[in-house]
Amino acid sequence: MDVIRIDGGRPLSGRITAGGAKNSVLPIFAACLLTEDECVIRNVPDLSDVRYMARILEYVGASVVDEGSGVWRVKAGEVRPEAPYDLVRKMRASICLLGALVGRLGQARVSMPGGCVIGPRPIDLHLKGLRKLSCKVEVKAGYLQVDGKDRRGGGVFLGGRYGSTVTGTANLLMAAVTTPGTTRIECAACEPEIVDLCTLLRGMGARLEGVGSPTLIVHGVDSLNGVDHTVIDDRIETGTYLIAAALTGSDLEVKGAPPAMLGALHDKMEEAGIDMIYEDGLWRVETRGQRAPVDLITLPHPGFPTDLQAQMCTLMAVTPGISVLTERIYPNRFMHVSELQRMGADLAIEGASCIVKGVRSLSGAPVMASDLRASAALVLAGLVATGETWIQRVYHLDRGYQRMDEKLRAVGASIERLPAEEMPKGLLGEDF
Ligand code: EPU
Q1: CB distance 25 to ligand 1 below 6 Å
Q2: In what order do the strands lie in the sheet with 155-157?
Q3: Does 226 fall in a domain?
Q4: What share of the chain is helix, strand, coil (3-state, %, to 5)?
Q5: Is the predicted pLDDT of residue 200 greater than 70, yes or no?
Q6: 11 and 41 in one domain?
Q7: Of 290, 296, 301, 367, which residue is 20 to 30 A from 224 by alpha carbon distance?
């Protein structure tokens, strides 16, 4: 297992390029199961979650080839309708298989995903949606069994107490594209990653209306064909590096997701006194005088993304004044808080909010990564902390950030990845 060591306080300069969107690629790979033709997927990021999804596709019978330079070929000649616990438990996004298998074979037997460190992640809305398509859905011995042989179009309202569901919308779309009749999905997720999935599905011959809106209409077709599709750039990776630029006061250019995908971040940065400027396809940030605190609430797109909340917490931790960051998607997604406190941040959890009192500086410390975005928040903190920050369990970071340490080192950060054995013994976080 690797650790990351950061010697903070270096300004960054140069250009960072974000890769393809992780949360687009995972359902898109699953959607390749909908046809027996070959699908070519481009701008695929080199992430452990992507390689893991490829293994799952291989298990169900697809041939998956990484051609290099972000180009992957998926051909699902024959597909088996089953994904076992052993494969599904390690990555929640593998639940996307459910809709793809129903769409291709009219049936699926997929293990229920297990728990998740960012809080409860139910799939009741996914199942409600499939039932509205007249699928028979049963949970038996930890497996979801879906019989959709006689499925037909219907009306589905996908809103839950936290808004819509991203992978639930993806699942229902994939099941509905080959379902006879018309399916109307109300309160569908509007995330850019769902729009990307719809673009892919249209390329495969699916008939969709209302793409990008909360009302998606799907007219079922008999079969789908292969496609050549380029995945959108990762808006969360782009946003993470823009926050890094603001935090370190750096002259950094970021190439990645366009303004239409980053409106909420743009708005909150502006409130914080930071202008996000987009010119000729490149982002940079400019701070007007002293930064100001923000009152931020995470919401489904186009609201502020929960996947950038932890990184904003790091920025506000060293911004004068009191900020309030409220989670409306995952009320317990504050695992970064206790680690940032170890670095000197003044943070308090109050219900589903984190109250942040900006401090002058953070100080480097050994910290533990707990999930993907919390890990990114710790890397950002390490960049501005005085002294050395050692981050353990960085495999969380590799799930969603392609070589973050290398990208940051290339723009001047003092950051290196080392085998855990090279971490000074006194700093290792041992359980006892
Ligand atoms: N929810 C339900 N019932 C359901 C499904 C969801 O109550 O059947 C709730 C969830 O508990 C949560 C909210 O609805 O409170 C939103 O969940 P959603 O289903 O939209 O999340 P997801 O599809 O499981 C995706 C991303 C997450 C991202 C969320 C929210 C992928 C693979 N994952 O998860 O990404 O945080 O949408 O935008 O697309 C990450 O990249 O770090 C990450 C966690």
Answers
A1: no
A2: 155-157, 182-186, 216-219, 207-209
A3: no
A4: 35, 30, 35
A5: yes
A6: no
A7: 301
Q: How far is the CA of 413 from the centre of ligand 1 (A)?
A: 32
Domain end: 189, 221, 253, which one?
221
- The reply to whether 296 falls in a domain is yes
Q: Domain tally for the chain?
A: 2
Token representation of residue 377: 């928040």
Over residues 177-199, the pLDDT tens digits come to: 999 999 999 999 999 999 999 99
Do residue 204 and residue 324 come from a single domain? no
- Asked about 116 being catalytic, the answer comes back as yes
Shortest-distance Cα residue to atom 36 of ligand 1: 307
Its domain, for residue 7, covers 2-19+234-425
Confidence of residue 429 (pLDDT cuts 50, 70, 90): low
- Tell me which of 116, 135, 187, 313 is the catalytic residue: 116
Contact present, 143 and 159 (Cβ < 8 Å): no
The whole-number pLDDT of residue 431 equals 47
pTM higher than 0.85 for the full model?
Answer: yes
Residue nearest to atom 10 of ligand 1 (CA): 121
- Protein residue with its CA nearest to atom 19 in ligand 1: 165
